[in-house]
């Protein structure tokens, strides 16, 4: 086919495409099909609190602020932040995590001199140059009662996606007022449209919670903490909703997928991994169908199923990308995949957690959510905020490797 014929074919296909789009848009309910979302629709995503899109580019850094009570997106320049500072902050956090030995859940955390100072330095940069300017613009103060803190959803882009905005602070300064958690409850979202797709739900006795525990997975470090962890989950939810669990060899990819279809919430306490070449192959390590083997429940398999209007997915024990200098944030990627699969709210970790901490956090989160009896209006974010506050008090504020990784994504 000549180049002229190829050009004619492309123009013809483009015309057909536009004609089909116009035809689709005449159908009721499809008027905005494949159109950019308008601001008056976008602000509905901010029903639970302000959404902050953090743009980090080599030329400039900015915050775009979306609030439910405003008709326009507000632009806030962040002149003190830069691409180089983002690289520096990420590098400091990477270095700290390597020195702490946080490769996968089940490893003992190492104590090395200088690690806390390195981590603290990164969190101070994030606080001074991104978070505090946003809080000041929103006129948020740290003196409100803890039960009524406003809710912020962060939507970071580029290098900012690797930064723990929810833990920003000047930890050299004592007292209230120099840490983000004194001002707001933080959640994350991969996109603004992800928040538009969610519907709040109420728990009742017909609601079903599924827990998956892998204390022993072939080829991986034992996770003895998953045993008390599932015990805490069971004690919190049983009697309020229906509860089921699959442990060790009971949990194969096919049995877990089938069970997920039948349950509203899922709790996954197991090793996981991020495939940096193909994120759809990222997944959770389970047992294989043959005794003594392992298998992976990946995002491709999860997204083949029809998971609609699901509730909470709690991803408790994800493994970081071992040896990867770019530190791909696999919990965030897996969590985003679970949002895409139909779960409205996801609790995950930015890196691997200490095995003994996971049961503590799960216990506090489920205890609070069962009291609330609701999900989808920021309840999971608040429950995690309070649980991590308890963990921080227990292990020490400057044990950043232990409490910072826990994040909430979604509504």
Structure in words:
- The chain has 411 residues and is an alpha/beta fold.
- The chain has 3 domains: 1-35; 39-195; 199-410, Rossmann fold, CATH 3.40.50.1460.
- Helices cover 36% and strands 19% of the residues.
- The protein contains 12 helices and 16 strands.
- It has helices at 3-24, 39-42, 83-100, 115-138, 192-196, 226-237, 253-262, 299-304, 330-341, 357-372, 379-395, 400-403; strands spanning 50-56, 61-66, 74-77, 151-156, 185-188, 201-202, 208-213, 242-247, 265-269, 272-273, 283-287, 294-298, 310-315, 343-349, 374-375, 406-410.
- The protein has a 6-stranded mixed sheet, sandwiched between helices. A 5-stranded mixed sheet has the order 3-2-1-4-5. A 3-stranded antiparallel sheet has the order 10-11-12.
- Helix 3 crosses helix 4 (115-138), helix 6 runs parallel beside helix 10 and helix 10 (357-372) runs antiparallel to helix 11 (379-395).
- Residues 127-411 form the CHAT domain.
- InterPro entries: CHAT_dom.
Tag the structure with descriptive keywords:
411 residues; Rossmann fold; 3 domains; five-stranded mixed β-sheet; 16 strands; globular
Note the total helix count.
12
User: What is the strand arrangement across the widest sheet?
Assistant: 8-7-9-13-14-16
Radius of gyration: 22 Å
CATH topology of the largest domain: Rossmann fold
Into which percentage range does the β-strand content fall?
Answer: 15-25%
Q: Please estimate the helix content.
A: 25-40%
Label the structural class. Answer: alpha/beta
User: Helix and strand succession?
Assistant: HHEEEHHEEHEEHEHEEEEHEHEHEHHE
Cα distance, first to last residue? 51 Å
Overall geometry: globular
> Could you describe the largest sheet, including whether it forms a barrel?
6 strands, mixed
How many distinct folded domains?
3
Q: How does CATH name the architecture of the largest domain?
A: 3-Layer(aba) Sandwich
* Low-pLDDT windows of residues: 320-332
Q: Mean of residue pLDDT?
A: 88
- Number of DSSP-assigned strands: 16
CATH top level class name of the largest domain: Alpha Beta
